[in-house]
Amino acid sequence: MLLFLAVALAYAGLGLLPGRTFAPLDLPLDAGAWKPDPTQRIRVSNTLLGDVVVQFVAWDREITHLLARGELPWTNRWAGDGGPLFANPQTALFSPFTWPRLLFGLKGWALTAILKLLAAALCAYWFARELDVPREQALVCGFVYATAGYTIVWLLYPITNVFALLAGLAAAALRLMKTPSIRNALLVLVFAALCTAGGHPESLFIGAIGIWIFLSWEAERRREFGGLSAIIPSTVGAFLGFAILAVQLAPFLTILGDSYAGELRPRLPHPFRIWGVVSQVLPGVLGTPLRGELDLTALPVAENFNLRAGGFIGAIVLLAIVLAWRQLAPALRRGLVIGSVALVLSWYPPGLWSVLRHVPVLRVLTLEYGVLLFVLFGAMAGGPAIAFAATRRRRKIGAALAIVGLLAVITGVFPLLPGAHATLTRVARGGIEQLRARGHLQQAPAVYEARLAYYLDAAGLTTVRRLAIPGACWLVAGLALALPLRRRAALLTLAAAGELLSFGIGFNPAVRMDAIPPEPPVVTALKQLDPARQSLIAEHFEVFPANLATLYQVRDVISYDALTTKARVAQLLPAGYDPLLHTFNPMLAPDETRALASLGVRYVLSRVDVPNARRVAGPPAPAVGIYELENAPPVPLPANHHPTGLYAGIVISLIALFLSAVWLHLFTLEAPTMQQFESRAS
Q1: Model confidence over 506-531: pLDDT tens digits?
Q2: What DSSP line would sit under 601-642, residue for residue?
Q3: What is the pTM for the complete model shown?
């Protein structure tokens, strides 16, 4: 417990310090509403954490406002035509990981992160022990699971509300298969309900299916379980646990059936993710979105860092699994097979999506989340694999790994050498020209020339952290394998831990409270122009991202939410709405402004003149100003009504609770064998 707590504090402890928060609320500083000069670039903590600010922080703020007024948080009245709060699973109102944020505000984000890391490590340790992994090796399993790419890059998202507890659900289900008892049955119920409350149905669906396949395989292969029937109690318990949360799932599924996401997702292209493959070994090869580091994602047109790095469990752990494959227990190998299949599917091999886009359910899934199964079962095999790999000397493999590590160290420190400046400058200018030619960079060449010194400094920090430090860990691991050492296992474990720690520590930065931007002048002016909040606003996301309006209690015509209905999107499309980016065109056409006005949009935030509108507030262009549209009717605030499907969900939840009590009662009659359990269940 102390070891895992220390790991959690290493990642999120800075957020507990006075004057700091673990919520990346400095991100709006780089948005146009806060910058009078469009060529100005303000470096923020981590540009990929934008959803945390425009979704989760905003929703938390409105939920606490409604609760403080004595209302239940049914609807976000500031977003679109009334965005769902309770029916949106990502608000995770029933998850214990959400409660610190609602209770303690911005300070609660660090507590949430620490609780997730601690839960992930403890659940993985428990699952490893249920798989008969020795205690010391199980500690390594817990460490790998808690520090793997999937945990760290999604640490502040509802994704990890589910992922942190998935290993606990697997452990509880496996324990119930071994020993049917009321205590073990209750554990399955509780963990299934908690995972459902986490708020990310895709992670839950993929994780539950993968765990069920694994347990079925175990039941069929292990004689002591007596065949596939051994999985029945765990299946029943998990299903009842999921159904207990029907009070939220039923309204969500009602909205989902009418959402535009069901139409949009099958149409999205999903090319083969070659950089996802590369990132299994070196996730920082294209840099990262952190302040002070380079992010070269746009050069090879790769997916963002979060998606690339999600399956990372450490190159050293990966190598140890390969080396120790034959020595691993059959259960661990079976789990790795399931995880590896899910990993390959997450890369979208050529031809895969052209088939799956026509398959119900799968057509709306984001297969990238399949890497969670690889991380789960890879972590379970990680501890034993390192122990087995260290049992004997491996000269050739160790020497090769040491050489690769040494080359990585040399390459990583190269940008810091005095003679490298001219070469790097030439390469940087060439890269800037490529990005400008592709349309990724919109400013004049002089702007990027002025930023060149920053780019070169950032290149040095990026290569040292993302190449030299992992290389040093590989070098140590290679020497441990190649040399006749007594403490080989300890050295390998430390090298693997160092690689994972260097990857993840600092990815979720603790932001100084004085770095949080104040309310922008255009928002202050909006409140003065429309004190009754009877009008809507529209904007481009680089000016003022949707849902930030919720933080400042002004009304946006759109909601940054995948649950926007088909009917609402149909209304927004004539106004130039992009449903993928949840934004409007930066330069609106006359017919688009007329369509906006018909929806009740009276004000547009823009750097450029807006057709059919007059500038009524804001500093002179190119700073962001407020443009008033003609003939925009007032729009009353949406009512805070409960969502459709709520009563059906309550009924299903009550039935699930009743059936859960009956199901648990079956275990109180006596300690049943599987045959007796099946007879009673019948």
Answers
A1: 999 999 999 999 999 999 999 999 99
A2: EEEEEESS--TTEEEEESSSTTS-EEEEETTPPP-PPPP-PP
A3: 0.94
